Structures are given as C-alpha cells and as structure tokens.
Amino acid sequence: MDLDRALRISAAGMAAQSTRLRVVAENLANRDSTGESAGADPYRRRTVSFANRLDRSLGAEVVGVSRIGTEPGDFPTRFDPAHPAADDRGYVKLPNVNSVVEVMDMREAQRSYSANLSVLETTRGMLTRAIEALR
User: Fold this and answer.
1) CA distance linking residue 102 with residue 127, whole number of Å
2) Distances (CA, A) of 92 to 36, 98, 99, 115, 135
3) Residue 116: how many CB atoms within 10 A of its CB?
4) Over the stretch 44-81, which tens digit does the pLDDT of each residue have?
C-alpha cells in the first residue's frame, strides 16, 4: 500500500535526522574538550553524511546515514602555558567546533525531522480515515 510506503520513508528520514541531532549534541558537549597530555589533539568535530539507498522491500529510495566522519583541518590554539595540555611553546589546541555552526545544523535537522513527522502524521490520519470508511 502506498500509504505504508510513505510512513516507512518518513520514518527513515526521521531516523537520519535523529542521528544528525545526536552528533550535533556530541559536538556541542565536547566543544571545550582539550587533549589529556601536552600537545595532544583535542576533540575533533564529527560530521554526518547522508545518502539515498534503495529499500528493495519498499521499492523506493530512502535517506540514510552513509557515514559519520570527522572534519579535517587545523585546530585553533590558545596561549595557556599553565594548562596540562599545553605544548612546549605554551599553546593548547582547542576543538574545531564552532557553536554557531552547530546550532544552525541543529535547527536544520530539527526542521527536517519536523517535516518528516508532519508527513507521518498526515499519512496516519489518511489511514485512519480509510479504515473508518471501510467499516
């Protein structure tokens, strides 16, 4: 039934956005995490990549998380010679997490999740009305 397909496609979208929200929360929680020893690398921002995949049981493409990776690039540094993670020059490597970017990602994931939830609720309402009409 096409309504069942719509429910399952929306559920796949919600699952993908839930993963994205979890990764954003992890990034925000670790935005101040530094290395444990002198010169050690701090927390590296994680990213989520999506991909369409064919769900053979549905006969349709659904979105899914293809990979959770890390963002490449240099770490910002701060001069703090008293910090336990400071290198021999007194600089501490900081995580490459930007709170503004994370909040924007979080809002986009929230909107996508809400859109999929709306489709799911509308489809469920249509199924309920169809069942009632058949009684």
Assistant:
1) 37
2) 11, 17, 19, 42, 69
3) 20
4) 999 999 999 998 888 888 999 999 999 998 999 999 99
Helices 2-29 + 99-134 axis angle, to 10: 160
The token pair that represents 123 in the structure block: 């489809």
Phi and psi at residue 71, in whole multiples of 5°?
Answer: -85, 125
Measured CA angle at 69 (ends 99, 60), to 5 deg = 105
Could you report how far apart the first and last alpha carbons of the chain are, in Å?
A: 18
65 touches 47 (CB < 8 A): no
Please return the burial class of 24, using the count of CB atoms within 10 Å of its CB with bins 0-12, 13-18 and 19+.
buried
Q: How far apart are CA 128 and CA 95, in angstroms?
A: 49
Question: In this structure, what token pair is assigned to residue 39?
Answer: 């010169």
- Are residues 93 and 85 in contact, defined by beta-carbon separation less than 8 angstroms? yes
- pTM of the full structure: 0.85
